[in-house]
Amino acid sequence: MPPESAIDPHAVAADLRRWAGELGFSACGIAPPAVGWDEERLMAWLRRGHQAEMAFMARHGRKRARPRQLVPGTRSVVVVRLDYAPQAADPVATLRDRTRGYVARYALGRDYHRLMRRRLQRLAERLSAAIGPFGYRAFVDSAPVLERALAREAGLGWIGKNTMLLNRRAGSLFFLGELFTDLALPTDAPAASHCGSCRACLAACPTGALVGPYQLDARRCIGYLTVEHPGPIPEALRPAVGNRIFGCDDCLLACPWNRQAPPSAEDAFQPRHGLDAPALAELFRWDEATFRERTAGSPIRRLGYERWSRNLAVALGNAPATAPVLAALQARRADPSALVREHVAWALARLGHL
């Protein structure tokens, strides 16, 4: 780390913001390595069991809210935002057409993790070239970090009632990344909330997973159930899943702040393989090799073929009982996976064709 007297921290902060923009980030802010009351909110959430089967959330406990415990010596956290709103088929129209599958908008293009980590690394390298070596760690969903709380402290937005970070210009359609540094940099003022009395996101949740303002029960969340949950989707919730086959955007689509979110200029986040409005019956005919080919470089790949098929079976069970839908389900009644077979049987029974 260079001697503190050798650098101008305000100039460094200004350079970081400028370089972040040049690297394609949508915004950059600086937070202190503390998130205050968010720690107790996290612990209360864990005590209620709202993390579902995400054991990793409890495993790291309070470390998530303590950047200095995660990376000793951290004195400032540089937080970056990257907007992702794709130019895609109308999401509301896709949700209404039950013959088509709905993929969360963030997953329509390429996986953001590598892209953002590369840019964060380049940002750190630019700073190192300017001031000399310094200590840092770059994170993009790769460590126990309360990134939304840090982003709020860095002035990038406020945490909305759906627990997402919101920004007045970008809504919540963006990714976040962090550089934990051993530099003492001037921090930004925390962003104020602009949700007011609005409850649109709570009313929009199909399964009632938003059990109150700022309270998400992952056990009922379609985003969790279709992406993180490893086993059968609870039968009572399957009708509400509708045609959502990877993630859920309903609380985002209902949020007034997202109506003015600008489309992303990133080619990497634009839809691939027609997954912004795909025909469910066609997707269910993919074999595992096709799944791997079509989802290469996509966030969907980590789901795996079995869970992808599980999700599709539920969506087909909520589709009209057309000939293509029934044929797709019948073709996989004897699927090698017990998980898939169970969901196919449910779908056929729901459509009256078991």
TrEMBL record:
Cofactor stoichiometry and binding remark: Binds 2 [4Fe-4S] clusters per monomer.
UniProt superkingdom: Bacteria
Positions contributing to [4Fe-4S] cluster 1 binding: 195, 198, 201, 255
Signal peptide as annotated in the record: none
Keyword terms: 4Fe-4S, Cobalamin, Cobalt, Cytoplasm, Iron, Iron-sulfur, Metal-binding, Oxidoreductase, Queuosine biosynthesis, tRNA processing
EC identifiers of the protein: 1.17.99.6
Pathway this chain belongs to: tRNA modification; tRNA-queuosine biosynthesis
Chemical reaction(s) catalysed: epoxyqueuosine(34) in tRNA + AH2 = queuosine(34) in tRNA + A + H2O
Pfam family name, one: Fer4_16
Gene3D superfamilies per UniProt: 3.30.70.20
Binding positions for [4Fe-4S] cluster 2 per the UniProt entry: 205, 221, 248, 251
Residues annotated as the enzyme's active site: 141 (proton donor)
Function field: Catalyzes the conversion of epoxyqueuosine (oQ) to queuosine (Q), which is a hypermodified base found in the wobble positions of tRNA(Asp), tRNA(Asn), tRNA(His) and tRNA(Tyr).
Family stated for the protein in its record: Belongs to the QueG family.
Name used for this protein in its record: Epoxyqueuosine reductase
